[in-house]
Amino acid sequence: MANSQADAALAVLARRFAQWRSTRVRGERIPTSLWSEAAVLARELGVCRVAQVLRLDYYKLKRLAAEARPPRSNASQEPSSPSPHFIELPPPSAPSRQQVVVELENAIGDKLRIQVSGQTLDVESLAAKFWGRE
To answer: pTM higher than 0.85 for the full model?
Structure first.
């Protein structure tokens, strides 16, 4: 989902939360369907931002976002585990004995660590691919 689409989805969800809050009975819990939609958006836009906009408990949203899976297009499909993503790195331009360690973490806590010896590394491109911006 593109950021502008995710922003629009967050605005729509904020209106749904406001509507639910205006009609709820005191002490009534937030419906699971609203939590689920918030968790999916938190995976896209970040937990902190979604929690602030929707006025939700950051830690509960973070836990739900880690468990959330994007909606499937066909309900009859079997759930699948996420497939690993491989990024092809360009060959080194000149031999080097330098050792490079890159550690990345995204908004929901996924981590990537790469240790490379004797190669050049395009960290900017690698980070963009890991964070889904490319």
So the answer is: no
